[in-house]
Design brief:
single chain, 419 residues, alpha+beta, Uridine Diphospho-n-acetylenolpyruvylglucosamine Reductase, domain 2, Uridine Diphospho-n-acetylenolpyruvylglucosamine Reductase, domain 3, Vanillyl-alcohol Oxidase, Chain A, domain 3, five-stranded antiparallel beta sheet, 13 helices, binds flavin-adenine dinucleotide
């Protein structure tokens, strides 16, 4: 027998008979893993080490058929469904307590068409795996900056990366997506087909179904000018003022990320990482003012392959996809990471204090892929004026909110319910 816990801490569905579970397992091409099985702990582990959730069942999906079986099983037996692709959800939403987890990570098929500059990629690929297959042709699309992140969650939330300025977000490069909806159908979403769903999966996260495959537009990207500069704390204020002016005038080919942190010796430093994805000589000229400012402790900017670097949107219509933040200039992120669980309290405290102190400088809004477990109002902030349109889409494609273990957009009938 299996008992389940709901998203709101409530039991969901009736306990399942063993024979029902066995029949489900027999209909899968991939493996069904339960707590008593080998590999259970490794499969439920996610990037965020503070998440220690124990699903009742994990389906290691071998393909789309397993995803359809899993969605139908979860719906029929009223199980809390979570979707795991790259496992890098900040909130740890890939895995739930007591639910059914669809593990897409075995689905790593990819077909690159270098002549048409298109890649068809299954949802279990990480960024590094995707880049590996496209870079052999000196092609790439916008993805994030940490190679172990999943292409799926990243693209469904928007997808910020080094090629943003020149080529838009990851979701802007999506040509189509294959989506298993709550009723177990497989739909193709693209400009000319299920276009409302196509709008929703480009920024709306996993709210409308399980995407099994993504088709991306690729761009010629070979060597880039990448690396970073580092300054001492004494120069931080002047450098950041200068950086603000520099960043507001730099061309689309240049993406930058400034940070405050500690160097390996524990000293406070300010850094800026860069990627120039146009001709190297032009990049050298563009970066000259930044590299000659003050007295950097370190300058590691040099030509490198885009794939080596991979370990601000332009004139896109803000309403063209569910992703909303096309006009804000900066994405502010506090990277608070630690290895020892006994350091959790201290780190959470300084992170929250810094976040509170920065509030007066923020515009309203948050990138959905940066959200932890922060409640319904923050999800609304992530989508702003797009939220009502997402609710209408939810009413159409997932009226019972089967896909709720995510940064959830609730159907109209459930809005106001506790999150
Ligand atoms: C170390 C680190 C670096 C990051 N760097 C960047 C960055 O450079 N740029 C950026 O934009 N973001 C970045 N992020 C945020 C990242 O985009 C999100 O955490 C994203 O959700 C991760 O996707 P995933 O597939 O790895 O995660 P998962 O935890 O597997 O999935 C996250 C959620 O997405 C949904 N989902 C995933 N796959 C599917 C699917 N196939 N169908 C339907 N729903 C699905 C589910 O709701 C799931 O819970 C980073 C996060 C981390 C932890």
């Amino acid at each position: 027998m299996v008992s389940e816990q709901g998203h709101w801490g409530m039991p969901v569905g009736k306990p399942l008979e063993e024979a029902v579970v066995q029949e489900f397992a027999a209909n899968l091409r991939g493996e069904l893993i339960r707590p008593e099985d080998g590999g259970y702990d490794a499969t439920r582990a996610v990037f965020n080490g503070m998440i220690d959730k124990r699903p009742a069942m994990i389906v290691r999906c071998a393909g789309t058929a397993d995803v359809i079986q899993g969605v139908n099983f979860a719906r029929t037996h009223d199980l809390l469904l979570s979707v795991h692709a790259g496992g890098h959800s900040v909130a740890g939403n890939a895995v739930s307590d007591g639910g059914l987890m669809l593990d897409l990570s075995p689905m790593k098929g990819i077909r690159v068409d270098p002549a048409r500059r298109i890649a068809q990629a299954q949802a279990g690929l990480t960024l590094g795996e995707f880049d590996h297959e496209t870079q052999v042709f000196e092609l790439a699309t916008t993805l994030g900056v940490v190679s172990m992140t999943g292409i799926a969650g990243l693209t469904l939330g928007g997808g910020l990366g080094w090629l943003n300025g020149k080529h838009g977000l990851a979701c802007d490069n999506l040509i189509s997506a294959d989506v298993v909806t709550a009723d177990g159908r497989l739909l193709t979403a693209r400009d000319e087909e299920n276009e409302d769903l196509f709008w929703g999966v480009r920024g709306g996260g996993g709210n409308f179904g399980v995407v099994t495959s993504f088709e991306y537009q690729l761009h010629p990207v070979g060597s880039v000018l990448g690396g970073g500069l580092r300054y001492s704390a004494a120069e931080a204020r002047d450098f950041l003022r200068f950086y603000h002016e520099f960043a507001s005038t730099c061309p689309d080919e240049l993406s930058t990320a400034a940070s405050l942190g500690h160097d390996p010796d524990g000293r406070v430093v300010v850094g800026v990482a860069v990627c120039y994805c146009g001709p190297i000589e032009t990049g050298e000229r563009v970066l000259h003012p930044l590299r000659t400012f003050g007295s950097p402790l370190e300058d590691s900017i040099q030509p490198m392959s885009y794939q080596t670097l991979q370990s601000a949107p332009d004139g896109v219509d803000p309403a063209a996809t569910a992703f909303r933040h096309r006009d804000e200039h900066y994405d502010f992120l506090i990277l608070s990471q630690w290895a020892d669980p006994s350091d959790s309290e201290e780190n959470i405290q300084w992170t929250r204090a810094l976040f509170d102190a920065m509030q007066p400088f923020f515009e309203a809004g948050v990138y959905v892929n940066n959200l932890g477990e922060e409640g319904e109002d923050r999800v609304k902030e992530a989508y702003g004026e797009h939220y009502e349109r997402l609710v209408a889409l939810k009413d159409k494609y997932d009226p019972t909110n089967l896909f709720r273990f995510n940064q959830n957009v609730k159907p109209a009938a459930q809005s106001g319910a506790p999150s």
